[in-house]
Design goal:
22% strand; binds nicotinamide-adenine-dinucleotide; alpha/beta; Aldehyde Dehydrogenase, Chain A, domain 2; Aldehyde Dehydrogenase, Chain A, domain 1; 2 domains; seven-stranded mixed β-sheet; 23 strands; 498 residues; 16 helices
Length: 498
C-alpha cells in the first residue's frame, strides 16, 4: 500500500505515527495511507522554515518571481499527470481536474508580477527636507489549511502569493486527497525554490492546532467548512495571528420570468451537478420567480438531469460527474435527501437508487432535484455538498432577493434575466461576495479577488489578486529627513506636515 508522508526541507519524509486512509472513491477501496503529523513534526517543519525564510525574504522579488515562472512551465508540462492523480483521489472528471490545476496556475501567473505588486509608495518632499516611503515586507512563516475539493487550486492560491512576497509557507492540505499537494511541492523545488520555503505537513486537527499555537507562524489562511473556519479564526486571532478563513456556501440562482429558460436550465445543470456538487461555488438553490417560471424551468431541467452521465473519470470524456469523496460524504448527502422528503419537499428527480455496475461499492450518488423547498427545511438551511438541487419558488423579485439576503451563507449567487435594470439592482443590493449576471459560477479571475460574505468568509481581505499581496505582507512606513540643520538641536514637539 502506498504510504504518503510529508514534504520537509526539499524531500519526501515518512510520517512517524498515526495515519488516515485515502480512498479510491470510484471503488470504495483504500488506495493509500497518509501520515497525520504530530505536534512535534509540525513544530520541526516550522522551525526549519523559520531558518530558511530570511534568505528567501532578502532575495530580490524578480528572482523569486522567476521560480514561479519556471513552476508555471512545469505545471503545464505535467498537467496530465497532475490531473490524473487528482481525479484518482478526489473522483472528479479529468477536464474538471485540469480546471482545478489551471485555476491555480493562473494565480501563480498573477504572482509573477510580484516585483510590481510589492512596490511601495513614496512621497518626495513630504515636509521640508523630509521624504516618506512605505515598503511591503514579508511576515515570516505563514501557513495554509486547505479543503479536499480543490486539492491543486486552493493550495496554489495560498502558497504562490505567500512565497512571492518572501515568506516561507507551511501547507496543511486535506488528508482526503494529499497526493497533488505533495507533487506541487516537488515541482516548486524543481523550479528552483530553496529547501524549507514550502513545507507540506499532512495531518488532521492535531497538526492544525499545532500551527495555530506555534508562535513562529505569523498568519493562517484557511479554506473549508464554516464550523472549522470559525474555530480557526477564533483560535488564530486569540493567538495574535493574522487570519483569513473561507467557509461553506449555499448559492442561490434567481431565474426571472424573462430569462432565456434553456440557457438557465443548462447553467443550473452544470453549476448544480458539476463535480457532484462538491464546489463552494456550486448552485444549490434555484429560485424561479413566479409559478409559471418555476413550471417552465422544472420542465426544462428534468430531461437534462436524467441524461447526466455519472461514472468514474476513467469512463471517457463524456462523463458529467463522478463519485463523492468518501463513504461518509455519501451517507450524509443521502441522509439530507431523506430529511427533505420527510419535511415535505417534492422530490422531482430521485437519484437514491443509482448504482453503477462494477462500482457498487463506490461513493456515487445519483442526481436529485427538489421542488417546493421552503426556508425552514434542513435541505435549504444546510450546505449539502452533493448532487442535489433545491427549488424554492418565489412570488416576486423582492421575495427572491430577500431569500438570498436572509440566508446565513454569502459566497456566490447569480441572476438570470434579460433586464439590465433588474440585474443591476440585484448586483448592487445583494449581501453576497461574488455575483453572476447570466453567469452561474462567478469565480473571479486571478487578478481580481475571491471571497464570500456572512458565514462564508471571516477576516478582512480576500484570496488572490491584490488582496493576497496585502495579506502576506506588512507595511512599514519610513519618514526620512536629511537636513543640514539637525545637528543644531533636537525637536520635542510632535510635528504636523504643513
Ligand atoms: P473541512 O472543514 O472538513 O476541512 C478543511 C480543512 O480543515 C482540512 O485540511 C481538514 O484537515 C481541516 N480540519 C477538519 N476538521 C478539523 C478540525 N476539527 N480542527 C482543525 N482542522 C480541521 O472541509 P472539506 O470537507 O475539506 O471541504 C469542503 C468545505 O470547504 C465545504 O464547506 C466548502 O464549501 C468549503 N470550501 C469553501 C471555499 C471558499 O472559498 N469559501 C472553497 C472551497 C471549499
Amino acid at each position: 500500500m502506498e504510504q504518503i508522508g510529508h514534504w520537509m526541507n526539499g524531500a519526501r519524509v515518512a510520517g512517524s505515527g498515526r495515519t488516515a486512509d485515502v480512498f479510491n472513491p470510484a471503488t470504495g477501496e483504500v488506495q493509500a495511507q497518509v501520515a497525520l503529523a504530530s505536534k512535534a513534526e509540525v513544530d520541526a517543519a516550522v522551525a526549519r522554515a523559520a531558518e530558511a525564510q530570511p534568505a528567501w525574504g532578502a532575495t530580490n522579488p524578480q528572482r523569486r518571481a522567476r521560480v514561479l515562472m519556471e513552476f508555471v512551465r512545469l505545471l503545464n508540462r505535467d498537467m496530465d499527470r497532475l490531473a490524473e492523480a487528482l481525479s484518482r483521489e478526489h473522483g472528479k472528471t479529468l477536464p474538471d481536474a485540469r480546471g482545478d490545476v489551471q485555476r491555480g496556475l493562473e494565480v501563480v501567473e498573477f504572482c509573477i508580477g510580484a516585483p510590481h505588486l510589492l512596490k511601495g509608495e513614496y512621497t518626495d518632499g513630504a515636509g521640508p527636507g523630509i521624504d516618506m516611503y512605505s515598503m511591503r515586507q514579508p511576515l515570516g512563516v505563514v501557513a495554509g489549511i486547505t479543503p479536499f475539493n480543490f486539492p491543486a487550486m486552493i493550495p496554489m492560491w495560498k502558497f504562490a502569493p505567500a512565497i512571492a512576497c518572501g515568506n516561507a509557507f507551511i501547507l496543511k492540505p486535506s488528508e482526503r486527497d494529499p497526493s497533488v499537494p505533495m507533487m506541487l511541492a516537488e515541482l516548486m523545488q524543481e523550479a528552483g525554490l530553496p529547501d524549507g520555503i514550502l513545507q507540506v505537513v499532512n495531518g488532521d486537527k492535531e497538526a492544525v492546532d499545532a500551527l495555530l499555537d506555534n508562535e513562529s507562524v505569523q498568519a493562517i489562511g484557511f479554506v473549508g467548512s464554516t464550523p472549522i473556519a470559525q474555530y480557526i479564526y477564533a483560535r488564530g486571532c486569540a493567538n495574535g495571528k493574522r487570519v483569513q478563513c473561507f467557509g461553506g456556501a449555499k448559492n442561490h440562482m434567481i431565474v426571472m420570468p424573462d430569462a432565456d429558460m434553456d440557457q438557465a436550465a443548462d447553467a443550473l445543470v452544470g453549476a448544480g451537478y458539476g463535480a457532484a456538487g462538491e464546489r463552494c461555488m456550486a448552485i444549490s438553490v434555484a429560485v424561479p420567480v413566479g409559478d409559471e417560471t418555476a413550471d417552465r424551468l422544472i420542465e426544462k431541467l428534468v430531461p437534462r438531469i436524467e441524461k447526466l452521465k455519472i461514472a468514474p473519470y476513467t469512463a471517457g470524456a463524456d462523463v458529467d460527474y463522478g463519485p463523492l469523496v468518501t463513504g461518509a460524504a455519501k451517507e450524509r448527502v443521502l441522509g439530507l435527501v431523506e430529511s427533505g422528503i420527510e419535511q415535505g419537499a417534492e422530490l422531482v428527480v430521485d437519484g437514491r437508487d443509482f448504482s453503477l455496475q462494477g462500482y457498487e461499492n463506490g461513493f456515487f450518488v445519483g442526481p436529485h432535484l427538489f421542488d417546493r423547498v421552503t426556508p425552514e427545511m434542513e435541505i435549504y438551511r444546510q450546505e449539502i455538498f452533493g448532487p442535489v438541487l433545491s427549488t424554492v419558488r418565489a412570488g416576486s423579485y423582492e421575495e427572491a432577493l430577500g431569500l438570498a439576503m436572509d440566508h446565513d451563507y454569502g459566497n456566490g449567487t447569480a441572476i438570470f434575466t434579460r433586464d439590465g435594470d433588474t440585474a443591476r439592482d440585484f448586483a448592487h443590493r445583494i449581501n453576497i461576495g461574488m455575483v453572476g449576471v447570466n453567469v452561474p459560477i462567478p469565480v473571479p479571475l486571478a487578478y481580481h479577488t475571491f471571497g464570500g460574505w456572512k458565514k462564508s468568509g471571516f477576516g478582512d481581505l480576500n484570496q488572490h489578486g491584490p488582496d493576497s499581496f496585502r495579506f502576506y505582507t506588512r507595511t512599514k512606513t519610513v519618514t526620512a529627513r536629511w537636513p543640514s540643520g539637525l545637528k543644531e538641536g533636537g525637536e520635542f514637539h510632535f510635528k504636523a506636515m504643513e
